[in-house]
Structure formats: C-alpha cells, structure tokens
## 1
Amino acid sequence: MLLDSNKIAAHNADLLKSHTNKLVFTTSEIGETENIIQKLIDFQIAIPSWALGTGGTRFGRFPGGGEPRSLEEKIEDVGLLHALNNASGAISLHIPWDIPTDYQAIKNLASQHGLKFDAVNSNTFQDQTNQEYTYKYGSLQNVNKAIRKQAIAHNIEVIQQGIALGSESLTVWLADGSCFPGQLNFRKAYQNTLESLEEIYAALPSNWKMYLEYKSNEPNFYSTTVADWGQSYSYVKKLGDKAFTLVDLGHHLPNANIEQIVAILLMEGKLGGFHFNDSKYGDDDLTAGAMKPYQLFLIFNELVEGMDARGMNHAKGLGWMIDASHNVKDPLEDLLQSVEAIMIAYAQALLVDRKALEMAQNENDVVKAQEILQNAFRTDVRALVAEARLRSGAALNPVALYRDFSVRQELIKERGTNTVATGL
Ligand code: LRH
Ligand code: MN
C-alpha cells in the first residue's frame, strides 16, 4: 500500500496553522532551532523486520490482521512508515526469518521506498527444520565443537547475505547460558564463545562492524554467557576494532543505570548501537519512551555529550535501531510512536546547556545541574520534530494520518485478517 505525497500534503495543509503557532512559540522559547531541526532531519532509525507483525507471549498472541506475508511486504510496511515520518530510512533483517530469494529485486524494492539495510541479525537461539545439531544447550558456547562450528557457519552465511544486500554490520545476540547451577562451566563457556566469535570476526569485511548484544536473562534463567555490558565489553575488546557492544534497553537487571553504561562504552570507543524499546519488568519490548521517557532523555544526554567529545557524527556514528514486540498495539502505530519518542529525547538532549551544566558540575551545584537537565526535558520539542518531518515531505502527525487513511483496514483488505508475519 503506497501513501502518495498528495495525501500527506492534504493532511499537512489541515494541520499547518496550529503547527506554525506551536513552532513560533517553541522557537521563541528556545532561540536557535535550525541546527536542531537539521539534525532531526538527518537522524534515521532502523526498523526491525521481525516487529512488523503482532508479537505475543507463551500465554497467547492476538493478531490484528493485514500482517506482511513476505519480505517484500515487510519492506513496503517500513516504506510506509518512512513516508509518514521520513525517519525510518532503514530495515534490519533477521536471518533466517527474512532470507531474500532475489537479492537484487529486494535491494531495488528497498531503494524504491528510500530504505537501506542496517545490521543483519543471526539466529542461533532457535533450531531450524533442516538443522543437523540442536542449540538446546547453546550455540557458540556449546561443549560440542561440531555445534559451535554449525553456529559459526550460520553467522558467516549471514554476513554473506548482508554483503549482498549492502548491509555493513552483523548483530550477534546469544541466548546461550544455563538454567541451573552446575549446568555450565562459566570459564569454558566464555572461552568457547570467544574462540567462536573470533572465527566470525575473521569473516567480517574490512568496512563492517560486529555488534555483540548482551542480555541479563531469558531464555536462560540462571546464567547468560553475554549477560551484561561488562561481559560484552570484555569480548569486543579482545576481538578487535570492528567489534562493539550493542545496548538493548530491555536487557538490563532492574534499576540498572543505562545512561552511565552508555557514557562509559562511548568513552571507551566500544559503543556500537542500540535496540530501542522500553520496559517495566523484564525484556518487555514495549514502545520506546512509554514507561521511562526521562531515562531515554538521560541516555541521549550522554550520547550527545559523549559523541561531541569524540567528534562523532550523530546520525552516522552509531547503529540506531528499534527492537520491539507488539502484543496489543497495531505494529505500525507502535513503531511510529517509538520513532517519535526517540526523536523527542534526542531533540531535548540537544537543548541541554552544556557549558552551564559543566560549570554546575565543577561547582558541585547539584540543584543547578538538575534544573538544567529537567529544563531541557520539560521543554515541549514536538513542534521541532514535526517541522523536521514537514521539511522532508513527511506527515505533521503520522499516527493521525495513518488512521485518517485507514491504512490498517486497507492492509487487511489487501492481505487478509489471518496473515502471520515471520518474527517474534
Ligand atoms: C533478544 C533480542 C535480540 C533479537 C531478538 C529478536 O531478546 O533483543 O536483539 O535477536 O530480540
Ligand atoms: Mn534486541
């Protein structure tokens, strides 16, 4: 389903007056806004190919209809999101959930929608039908060398598929770990995983990056072999300059200070990118900014400060990706809301008066420091985010346009009510 620019222009025309009023007020409050608007226009967030259908849990899954039945339809859906917000200019594929049959055709279709291919994701946390060995007791950590070899071969195959698509990074998330004390020798599991990652690393093209994603628990519930930022950091330091740590916001133990982890990894030059989402309890994969918008702002506050300190380009310096699962929301509306929340957090972080904050910190003026941060967080920047969309031909209010044009109903007419997308 294509959203032609006339529909978007008509939608914007209706909203232009109220938008302009808000923008004039916001600009009068903030002062210099052009630099922020341009940074928002340049900022692109990759959409996960595995989150375009309805997610579920072991207790149930309630599909909403019109889900993409193929990689082609997934690319169309991400293209639709990108047409609505001009901030979703890439798709991140998960292999084998989304193996292209005709690479050139898929690349052409993606570029028709203005999309690039971000990181490709390997999958050694499920057994595929024609697979020789099971990953029940892990993949790269496995005590059985043949199983480690099978998992290494899969990752190298995923790199080849990524090269064919024009991707330049591999994300490795390992479910590996143990469910009971005594089940695993932690040191041997670490060594096996490191040696396996070294073989995968050796297969990376010179311009590629490897993102090693950590997670505290699930599906293993006693130990995870890449469980936290420290463990991931120790692996990527040993692997080399092309290996980095990926921070999935939902992969931390309760009350972890994620913005501090981000600051340290960035300072060490080992922060590779993000899987944005939000959570209240575990790896809930909820809409970014839905539960802890202040934490998302504090993370971007560290990112802006740390990336500027290293002279990094905000849009290109790190891997910006969403990783979410939609149990009760329309997947596309959920993703539109996540992108909006990320853009708002980034814009607010760009508002922080860095000089004043540094002075307050040097004078241990704790109250002043909080005033500076919360002043930025409490500034309504939505008009700036909307203006960035307007200037790039997208919709002033993507979710409203999505609903006004009954996009989901059109997708259901086209695809049916019982289609099931591959993925989580
Ligand atoms: C693991 C994870 C990982 C993906 C999977 C879909 O929880 O965050 O990034 O491979 O979700
Ligand atoms: Mn993730």
## 2
Amino acid sequence: MSANTLRGLAAKKGLLVGSAFSYDAFRKDPLYGEVLAREFNCLVAENEMKLDVLQRVREQFDFGPAEAMMAFARQHDMKVRAVPLVWHDALPEWARDKTFPRQEALDILREHIFTVMRHFRGRVFAWDVLNEGLSDKGPGLREEGPWYHSIGPAYVERVYHWAHEADPQALLFYNDYGMDGMSEKADRCYQWVKALLARGVPIHGIGLQYHVQVDKHPTPTEVTQNIRRFNDLGLTVHITELDVWLPKNAAEADFRLQAAVYRGVFEAALAAPKCPAIVLWGFTDRYSWVPGISNGTYDRALIFDRDYRPKPAYEAIASVLR
Ligand code: G3I
C-alpha cells in the first residue's frame, strides 16, 4: 500500500476512508477495482445488500453479488460496513406497495435480519439497521413503506433488538440524509435517538449520508457540533454516502469550491471526538447516481473524473490527511 494514497494517509490517522461498491461497474471495468483497492480501506455495497437484491424472490436469499464484494474486500484488506437491513425503498415486487398482516410483517423482518446478519457475521463491522425512517418534515416517523404500514412505529425498536441478537459484535447504526449539520431534522433525530437509548434500544451509531450540492451544504463548524452532540450520547458517527454535486455546466471555479467542501467534511470529521469513518457514495464520475436522480441538472459529484483522474477534491482530501 503506497503511503501517498488516500488509504495510506488515512491509515496513519486511524481513519476509514470508504466508497460505495457497484457490482455492475466492478464486473465490466477493471480500472474500477484497481483504483478502489488502491485508494480506499472500506467498502459499502451500493445496492447488493438491499432487500430487492438479497430477496428478489421471497425467502430465496441471493448473496452472490454481495459475496463478490466481500471477496474483493478480503483480497485487499478492506473493512465492510453494510446498508440497509430495513428501508421503505429498494423493495422487491412481493413487498412493494404491500401492507401485510402485522405478525407476517414482523416475521419477514425478523427472518431477513437474522438470515442476512448471520450470513455476514464477523465480516461486516457495522450495519445501517434502519435507513431514512424519520419523516422529512413533520414530527415522528416516515409514514411510508410496508413496515410502517403493517406494524406501526413499534417496528423500529424490534429491528434493533433483533439485529443486536443476530450479531452482538456488530455496530448498529441509524442512517439518514438532511441531518449532516445542525438542521431541524438533525434536532429531531437527536431527541428521538436519545429517547430510544433511554429505553435500552441497542443503537451504537448515527450515519450522516451527506449528499450535498456545492452551493448548499452545512458549515464544517456545525457538522462538528452535530457529530459532537451525538458523541456525547455515547454514539459514534459515520459519514456514510458523501457526494458533492456540481451543476451540469460547472466552471473551473466550481471544482475548486467542490474541493473546499470535501476538505471541510474531512476537517469537520477529524475535529470531532468520534467520527472514525467517511464513506463516499462512489469515487469516479463515471459511475454515480447523481445525474440520474437530478435529471442531468447535477453531475460530477465525486473525487475522480470519468477517466479516473484525481480532481481538485482528491488533492484537498489528501492535504487534510497528510
Ligand atoms: O440492477 C438492475 C438492472 O438489472 C436493471 O436492468 C435496471 C433497470 O431497472 O435496474 C437495476 O437496478 C437499479 C440499481 O440502482 C442498480 O443500478 C435500480 O433500478 C435502482 O433503483 C437502484 O438505484 C439505487 C437507489 O439507491 C435505490 O436502491 C442507486 O444505485 C443507489 O445509489 C441509491 O442509493 C441510496 C442509498 O441506498 C440510500 N441513500 C440515498 C442513496 C441515493 O438514493
């Protein structure tokens, strides 16, 4: 491992620098795996550990794509964190737009959690047990998806207790977007998790997704403040899906701004008491969800360009880690 790569520099700081892993890109593009292994020491499956892939057919678990990533991680001595065990999205046909009888929904979730966590036990150090469970605007939980509709709010505590039983060594996270800084949603998440912890719910960490635009993002100071208050609850914090969106016709100055945002995120994390992992939602602009989800208005959100050339953002991160 070269000392001058991101993973070389991060190792000296005891920091995990990770990336989402796309099975499709890995299979068709040899450079993808080469740069991933050279620069990162942690992987997250972008889609291969979601319910719509693991149980495309109900009760027929397909670990194939995820195991390709696990083999790659083992070969290159990379840690693996996993997302999401429970989510209102990325649902297979048999669960999409469904409301199950309550006990059946509980059985589905319990079986999924035990089967998947037991399968990866000892190879995945952290799980986002629940992803995006909080409402975006109003108080309380997001009222969407088969789990909330079939079980009600009680599904949250059940899934964390099952996850802890399935793998007592794994770190269990709550992961969400729009709560990277001192936002209203972050305030609600803070109060909600504090109450869950008071009821003995086994949550060990918070995942801040950190999908931001180059001109719309929290300041590093408020990010550190946000991380610190969760740390004060005894929780660790991971940045789990970092990308910094550029407008389609970005000018050179925008790339320098993007670099400053990436620098700010790493500085904020390193300034906080406990934020030992920063994961990017991909690393090359060649493979990114951003153009699709933004109908092409945003793009080039990552730190390597489409030809795997490091962008100013890469240098900015490296300079923080040196
Ligand atoms: O693999 C199938 C392919 O066989 C099929 O031909 C194609 C056309 O339907 O779909 C492919 O699956 C797509 C998959 O990405 C792989 O490309 C799914 O339709 C598509 O919905 C899926 O999108 C993913 C999305 O989550 C929903 O699961 C994005 O890649 C992924 O970046 C995105 O990631 C989420 C995090 O999990 C949670 N936080 C937000 C983040 C962005 O939405």
